[in-house]
Amino acid sequence: MMAQYQAMRRTLPADVLLMYRLGDFYEMFFEDAKVAAPILNVALTKRHTTPMCGVPYHAAEGYMARLLKAGKRVAIAEQTSDPKPGKLVEREITRILTAGSIDNLSLLDDQRPNYLAAVFRQGKKSGLACVDHTTGEFTLAEFDDGGQLADELARIQASELLIPDHQLSEFPGLANSLPYDGYAFLPDHAGQFLRDHFNVHSLDGYGCSGLHAATGAAGAVLHYLIHQLRRSCDHIRNLRVRESACHVLIDAASQRNLDLVESRSGKAHTLLGSLDRTATPMGARLLRDWILHPLRERETLMARQDCIAAFLAEPYLLSKCRESLKGIRDIERTTGRLAQGSGNARDLSALGVSLGHVPALREDVSNLSQPQLASRLHDFTDLTRLLETALAEEPPANLKEGGMIRDGWSPELDELRAISRDGKGFIARMQEEERQRTGIDSLKIKFNNVFGYFIEITTTHLAKVPDDYTRKQTMANAERYITPGLKDMEHKVLGSEERSKQLEYELFLDLRKQVVTHLDALQQTAAAIGEIDVLCALAETAQLHRHCRPVLEESGRLVIVNGRHPVLDQTLQGEKFVPNDTTMEPEDSRLQILTGPNMAGKSTYIRQVALIAVMAQIGAYVPAESAVVGLVDRVFCRVGASDDLSRGQSTFMVEMNETALILNHATERSLVILDEIGRGTATFDGLSIAWAVAEHLHDITGCRTLFATHYHELTDLEATRPAVANFNVAVREWNDEIIFLRKILPGAADKSYGIQVARLAGLPKPVLERAKAILSHLELHSVKPEAKARGPKAKNTRQTTDMPSANPPQMDLFGQF
Ligand code: ADP
Ligand code: MG
């Protein structure tokens, strides 16, 4: 047995743990045991000198899950022949479980996809391919630069990422990465592998022509699933190219800073959380995907808006659709499981229930003024009826224990069940029949373990025994017989339970096979349901929170009337959210500098504008009274270093890296949100950098920029740059107290109110008094830029200098340039 084990072990990569079935246990040996025992919290034992540990097979799923969670890959060797004395049981590695290919749905979050991805570099291009094995979703993309690849990786959050073993140095430091055979990535080989899988002559039909790097990655992912993990991939029927040119690019840092799908304070505080009123897992996953991949194409966005408008115009149909959607479960993943031969009767039953809601949904959707949605929902009347009539009300998860099939579905099964349920009754009836036939009233049918059922007749009646009785045994005053009829019945009664279970299993397999013949239609329908669900959710949100339909333009404008922050608007406790207008015009207000005291609402406001743009470009309605959004190609959102201490590196360095990325990649069509940039270093450095960045964005890039800053000097830019406009967040001073009005007003803030904010925070009174004294001293001598108070008049004075206006000590510094 150990030789068999070693031979198997040799076929596996070193890091894969082998769980080896031994009777009622899965055992692990040698290094595997040492690695696994502490993770599984089971005893590490020794047989002879071999370290080993084991888990009972009936609880194995849970243990496997723990290993996967710990980032391990696990091979399962099952026994494939029945144990016979003196003979080695045959074993086979049936599958290898990995984090990127989990298909036990209880281990997965149904709100998000679980990706296995691969990257590959060919020439200057980086290719990425991505499979969700649970659904069969398969996409690829190609990038001109490594940064964009990294951003997409940050979006998809793959659980497992393959890197060609000959290119490890080209992809350093990627999360969850794993080297894989470089040969599988070679575009010729990979292309052939994909063509064979999809059974096509060319991949051009999938839009892959010329995408060599991406094709290499795609071939490798599939190769890994099929050959190394031994998974069925028959349900992977489609390959989709993600064109980065079609999407609004949002780099990893911006995605984080905007809290699109994740936030430190939980899902409720993300854009996703504020929009997710989806009812199905397909919808939840799709909405996430839409948010991470906003679109640039106006037509597609308008089509989505039209659908939302159609739902809003018919609130009754909207609520009916949502009612139907609530009854639909994860068709997509269920179908995926069934197609891989791994689903059970509960999956079939859930599928049947879900499909039962499709006709009503189609009916409702086709009554909308946008009926095209309905055409992608297939007709499953026959399949639904089949599942309904064949499956028991609440079938068990186990496939071999019976109880899955409904009475009346199979006459043969019904008979077997009747016999096994009513074994005694059958015997009693037969005994009665035999008594009638022979006229022997004392005839008895009995049972013993030696020859099963028999007929016993006392010696007095022996003369009446019919010819078809065969004598088996002679007793003191009776004879025992059997008949073919009796043996036949015995066979039925004794084996009936076993055979009814076996028959149920076969009937189940047949049902599953029938379902899988509808795979394409099921996948298309699941995708359409996801889309309808997202559109319904967006319509519902629009209705609940009074969102409006934004006008989409191919321009550099951004005009929002009474805009609100989509998340705070819904989550703010106590206070009511104060709406604000935004007017960005290419000629005179594309760069807006926003000043105001801490806590006034600067960060909130600039993010609100960015989020409204993102929402408009997923096709959603936006939290405003009205909005005109000139479509953007990229969104950047940067937060000054000291606002973001949670990351490890030198935060100022990170801030500068991220700022460099903006300056190098923003275009005229981009939207840039800068929050306190330059804060992570000394004041003069910081101000100088902020100043230069603002100038560059205004003069060279020409993009739309919102710049929240505490460097009041920056507001001087308005005087020398035509498209710079100053704004501030209104506050009112009252008895040394500060009242936040949350209103954005034209013009620069007159002072920072730092001391008033400190008072709000509860700084001791003597400290506040002392600070006030120091401040007035500083203002008098004007040594620090922030301390320079600006009267309302100074605010509008146009200055001719191209440098920050500064007082003598500062002038010296800037004068050096
Ligand atoms: P700043 O960046 O100016 O320091 P923030 O944008 O962080 O201020 O806002 C501070 C707090 O003020 C927010 O957490 C929010 O609770 C509240 N707030 C901001 N804007 C608004 C608004 N428009 N309406 C209501 N409350 C707001
Ligand atoms: Mg702030």
UniProtKB/TrEMBL annotation:
Gene Ontology BP term (one): mismatch repair
Family classification: Belongs to the DNA mismatch repair MutS family.
NCBIfam families per record: mutS1, PRK05399.1
Gene: mutS
Pfam family, one: MutS_III
Name assigned to this protein: DNA mismatch repair protein MutS
Gene Ontology MF, one: ATP binding
Function in brief: This protein is involved in the repair of mismatches in DNA. It is possible that it carries out the mismatch recognition step. This protein has a weak ATPase activity.
PANTHER family: DNA MISMATCH REPAIR PROTEIN MSH1, MITOCHONDRIAL (PTHR11361:SF34), DNA MISMATCH REPAIR PROTEIN MUTS FAMILY MEMBER (PTHR11361)
SUPFAM superfamilies recorded: DNA repair protein MutS, domain I (SSF55271), DNA repair protein MutS, domain II (SSF53150), DNA repair protein MutS, domain III (SSF48334), P-loop containing nucleoside triphosphate hydrolases (SSF52540)
UniProt keyword annotation of DNA repair present: yes
Signal sequence residues: none
Domain DNA mismatch repair proteins mutS family: 670-686
Alphabetized InterPro entries for the sequence: DNA_mismatch_repair_MutS (IPR005748), DNA_mismatch_repair_MutS-lik_N (IPR007695), DNA_mismatch_repair_MutS/MSH (IPR017261), DNA_mismatch_repair_MutS_C (IPR000432), DNA_mismatch_repair_MutS_clamp (IPR007861), DNA_mismatch_repair_MutS_core (IPR007696), DNA_mismatch_repair_MutS_N (IPR016151), DNA_mismatch_repair_MutS_sf (IPR036187)
Keywords: ATP-binding, DNA damage, DNA repair, DNA-binding, Nucleotide-binding
Coiled-coil annotated residue ranges, if any: none
CDD domains, alphabetized: ABC_MutS1
Assigned GO CC terms: cytosol
Region: Disordered, residue numbers: 785-817
Residues the entry annotates as binding ATP: 596-603
